[in-house]
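Researcher: Please generate the 3D structure of the following complex. Treat every line as part of one assembly.
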Amino acid sequence: MTAATTSSTRAADRADELALLGLVGQLELVAFTRLAEDSALAPSLDQRLRLARFSAGAVSRLERIFERITELGGSPEAEVERFAHVMDDFDARTPSSTWWERLLKAYVGYGVADDFCKAAAAGLDDRTRTLVEEVLDGTHHGELVLAELAAASADDAVLTSRLALWGRRLVGESLGVVQSLVQSQPGLARLVADGAAVEARASGAEPAAGPGPTPAEALSTLFGRLTAEHTRRMGRLGLTA
Amino acid sequence: MTAATTSSTRAADRADELALLGLVGQLELVAFTRLAEDSALAPSLDQRLRLARFSAGAVSRLERIFERITELGGSPEAEVERFAHVMDDFDARTPSSTWWERLLKAYVGYGVADDFCKAAAAGLDDRTRTLVEEVLDGTHHGELVLAELAAASADDAVLTSRLALWGRRLVGESLGVVQSLVQSQPGLARLVADGAAVEARASGAEPAAGPGPTPAEALSTLFGRLTAEHTRRMGRLGLTA
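Model: Done. Output below.
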């Protein structure tokens, strides 16, 4: 029965991998739409053009995810569709009322989702892991946000403290999205546990043949990391997390 | 003084050419935003993805226009900026209330603007003329619209007659946009007259060394052609123009 068990384990792994790629694809599709809206609302033509390019870039990255899903024998549309409403709640709970709030929301809110996907990809095969990292790091959008927000808040203490508060709201809501994702999609929770085990062994925190962290430990590590990355992002903006 | 006159004429031609490229660039930027909105509103994931790809394609085409403006010694942003609000009136006057109305608006309303640009490009150097034609024909968006609208209106006489009415509204408003463009931008009116002269000579309607049509004749030919193209488009949709 060993062969059958191994084969069924492999099929489950493959399904989990496809689910993660579907989530990343959905995030790129959401990013495309959001960046196009940002572009339409941008206060200057220069920003409008830059955001239009970022938005088009999200479609290119989506195509790379689709290619990989197809290579792995999955249906790109089916995998993306299952996360159709993943950011809807987050968006409904965090309506941004100014251009600055929109920019911070993109940087902070979606940053958490990106970090989650990277953590879940850590235990996957090299090609998928590298693809997920490249796709999620590929926007260069952070630099625009950073420059804009740093310039705007440099001499404006009221804006700075409003944005710090907004950042805390955003991180709370986006950690909530991650929480409900790992609860509703056991495959993603398994990937997070696998990724944590790979990283614990690589760092020497666990013996190479050890059982790795428990699922609860893996999730706790994950949330710790997501929060630390958030604090680092807010720090780069000169905002208190 | 002949050399100076020639040089100043050339500079004027160049300025007109840059203005047309700026208009085409602006139309691509507007198309990017509009198609991204269409994508966000699309009733199925398949349509959402196709429209996202069309939207990203508009950004690629915009880059080609920018390269040409730069080659010709112009500033892409300045040329695009001068047409910043070219479609605002049209959009404000034609709020589409359904998905079908949105699709028809894209196909019919922007089709007129595209045809206008092609007519104005007809007298330009080969590279710019070919670029404008390729860029404006490059969306393939028409096929999606055609398939969607044909399928939706095939068994729905009420929808068909509403869309026919909507098409007449759209063409009226978009011819109004063209009218105000040729009035407010004398350079574009000159290009239309040049294009009409080139085409009249090519077709044998005017002798090769003849003066070509008068500006009034050129505009009358233009509006005749825009209307004929509109009728052809509506016909492809099975709608009465």
